[in-house]
Amino acid sequence: MSKASVTRTDAEWRELLTPAQYQVTRKQGTEPPFRNAYWDNHADGVYFSACSDTPLFDSRDKFESGTGWPSFSKAIEPAFVSAQTDSSHGMTRTEVSCPVDGAHLGHVFEDGPAPTGMRYCINSASLRFMPRKEYQAWLAARLP
Question: Model's pTM, two decimal places?
Answer without folding.
Answer: 0.94
